[in-house]
Amino acid sequence: MNSEVRTIALRTGIQVPCLVHGHLNEISDDGSAPPLLLLHAWGESWRSFERLIASLSSQVLVAPDLRGHGRADKPETGYSLNDVVEDVVALLDALGIEQTHVLGSSSGGNVAQQLAITHPEFVASLILVGVPLSLHMRPPFADEVDLLNDPISEERVRNTLSWYRLLHEVPTSYIEDRVQDGLAIPAAVWKASLRGLYEAAPPTDLGSLSVPTLILWGAHDHLVPRHHQETLAARIPRSQLKIYQATGHLVLWECPERVAEDTRDFLANYVRDG
To answer: How many Cβ atoms are within 10 Å of 229's Cβ, its own excluded?
Structure first.
């Protein structure tokens, strides 16, 4: 399939780059399966999905940079969870996508859940990869983020990556790309986007999720405990929880091929039969 990165002007007043892999027009014309929307984590960009995309080459995919991240516009305001969701809705409208499967990595999964609750007509299913049950509190590293000032140094960004334990070997080039993601974000956006996440009520406190949902979690995640994942699964009636042994919080970084395999199986089987 062909891939291109499009710059999309959203009705919310910003422009975002968006990778489109495959042909969206063919989806709406022939009635085939919806595309898969990829929502990246706080501090990253759509490029964090590149290794996953390589293993999902036959799937039509859409992967934007979220507000303030990557090469997306970086306004001073608009970083609440609802604001980010409205950007996503505006993106889907701009691309003519009426329904999509949604995969969210880490905090991107909170965006995905909020989208499914506030705009359920858009969401066919959810895949939540290392996603917190709730961000409705200051995370332990928030104080460090509050100390950030421009220009952010490379050392500071590397320090942020050290918050996450890696149990699998991750290519150096991939980690260097994530450093560049961090350097692309101004200090004010680091702070505002994190604050927007932890000031939001947990999505599942606001409404119910009825779409088929796959939850992938690393057994050695020191940020998101197992009982939170079990609670999340219990709140979503049509969900299944898969636990990756010897894996930390960054499931997408450590196991992209396995995430791709589980995603393919879920979309082919669980969604069809769910």
So the answer is: 24
